[in-house]
Amino acid sequence: DIQMTQSPSTLSASVGDTVTITCRASQTFSHIWLAWFQQKPGHAPKLLIFGASKLETGVPSRFSGSVSGTEFTLTINGLQPDDFATYYCQDYNLYSPWTFGPGTKVDI
Amino acid sequence: QVTLKESGPALVKPTQTLTLTCTISGLSLRTTDWRMSWVRQSPGKALEWLARIEWNDNAIYSSFLRTRLRISKDTSRDQVVLTMTNMDPVDTGTYYCVRMHPYSDWGQGILVTVSS
Predict the structure, then answer these.
(1) Nearest CA in chain B to A51
(2) B12: pLDDT confidence band, cut at 50, 70 and 90?
(3) Cβ density class B70-102: b for 16+ within 10 Å, e for less
(4) What is the pLDDT of residue B102?
(5) Of the candidates A69, A61, A77, which has an alpha carbon nearest to the alpha carbon of residue A21?
(6) What is the pLDDT of residues A54-88, one digit of tens each?
(7) Which residues of A touch B39 (CB under 8 A)?
(8) Does A94 contact chain B (CB < 8 Å)?
(9) What proportion of chain A, given as a percentage, has pLDDT over 70?
(10) pLDDT per residue as tens digits for the range A4-14
(11) Inter-CA distances, B54 with A81, A93, B43, Å
(12) How close B2 gets to chain A, by Cα (Å)?
């Protein structure tokens, strides 16, 4: 399986900040199969982005995704109080097992 | 609207086999272009993808747990079933049934504790 790493593991930020989370894959794969999820304590994860850069319906436009080689980035422009959560990237190659990254916790 | 509900035992003993059922509403498993996964999360830990089954009966497993897992579907009941053998305390966690890629619909999760 492809292994995913995320950095940082924890990120301290303030409301209004722009934050960037990076996800790296152990091998090259099609960027169309990279998703980002947000999870708050006690809740199931929520899909934010799929296809590396496509915003899921209903997700605020302050969230964006990009890719460069095997490095994927989730950016939150203008952090809101509701955004303090843990974020996971996921490889979802349709022909292989799927993998989540280890997560990045965004806190105050 | 698709809803997913997990059911199964809250407590299993070490070495036992866990069987979890996901009952699906709002989607017939007789249709195509769907993928149902099981994802688990140990307390305070990251999400872990376990297995998926697709409309065409294709079943794919985590390489790390492949030998212990089996996923199946019952189209007549619109259910997806996961079995995990040889349960261990490290398998304690919340198990989610998920429709994803396309879409992203999550069940509420079921907490399974492995303890003697």
Answers:
(1) B101
(2) very high
(3) bbebeeeebbbbbebeebeeebbbbbbbbbbbe
(4) 84
(5) A77
(6) 999 999 999 999 998 889 999 999 999 999 999 99
(7) 100
(8) yes
(9) 100
(10) 999 999 999 99
(11) 37, 13, 28
(12) 15
| Distance between A88 CA and the closest CA of chain B, angstroms | 8
Which of B46, B62, B107 has its CB closest to that of A97?
B62
Token duo for residue A19:
């934050």
The partner residue sitting opposite A1, judged by closest CB among B37, B63, B104, is: B63
Say if residues A56 and A49 touch (Cβ distance below 8 Å).
yes
Name residues whose C-beta falls within 8 Å of residue A58's C-beta, 6 or more positions apart in sequence: none
Q: What is the pLDDT of residue A68?
A: 87
Q: Which of chain A's residues have a Cβ under 8 Å away from the Cβ of B2? A: none
